[in-house]
Amino acid sequence: MEADRLGGCGSVIVVLDTSVVLDIAMGLIPLSSIGDVLSAGYKLVVPSGVLEELSRIAGGRGLKARVARRALSLIGEAGMVVYDVPGGADDAIVALALNLKGSCRVVVATNDRSLRRRLRGLGVPTMYYRRARGGLEVDWHPL
């Protein structure tokens, strides 16, 4: 069971999308702000599709590639749990969130509007970086 791999569900499980991992690596989103928004303990989870997407970006040149390389190292440094989930990044995020939702409190952190809309329709709360306010905001919070 997925929850067993996380050591139980005493905390909120935060599934991270590529966009949010990149924003964390750039310093736009401090890791501590996730706990501040949720007002609870949390565990960070990244599906393998996000790692693949970051690796693809990191193989390029320029600032975005350097940020992606930093994001890949940050995943290990921050102790994020990586799940091998089939499919592309968005499909893997949805599948993982729905799988964990049955036994844990789950929120998906993403800046992708269509993914947020899709998750909202499935009853999965989301959070995103709101540039106008300079911080994270919960889109829908039934936690």
**Architecture per CATH nomenclature, i.e. the level-2 architecture:** 3-Layer(aba) Sandwich
Q: Strand sequence of the main sheet, in spatial order?
A: 3-2-1-4-5-6
The helix content, as a percent range, equals 40-55%
How many structural domains in the coordinates?
A: 1
Question: What would your notes on this structure say?
Answer:
The protein has 143 residues and is of the alpha/beta class. It has one domain: 3-Layer(aba) Sandwich (Rossmann fold). The protein contains seven helices and six strands, in the order αβααβααβαβαββ. Strands 3-2-1-4-5-6 form a six-stranded mixed sheet, with helices on both faces. Helix 2 crosses helix 5, helix 4 packs antiparallel against helix 5 and helix 4 runs antiparallel to helix 6. The protein is globular and about 40 Å long.
Short description, anyone?
With 143 residues, the chain is an alpha/beta fold. It has helices spanning 2-5, 18-26, 31-38, 48-58, 63-77, 89-101, 113-121, and strands at residues 12-16, 42-47, 81-83, 106-109, 126-130, 135-138. The protein has one domain (2-138): Rossmann fold (3-Layer(aba) Sandwich).
Tell me the layout of helices and strands.
Layout: H1 2-5, E1 12-16, H2 18-26, H3 31-38, E2 42-47, H4 48-58, H5 63-77, E3 81-83, H6 89-101, E4 106-109, H7 113-121, E5 126-130, E6 135-138
Parallel strand pairs: 1-2, 1-4, 2-3, 4-5
Antiparallel strand pairs: 5-6
Helix pairs in contact: 2-5, 4-5, 4-6
Identify the notable features of this structure and list them briefly:
six-stranded mixed beta sheet, globular, Rossmann fold, 143 residues, alpha/beta
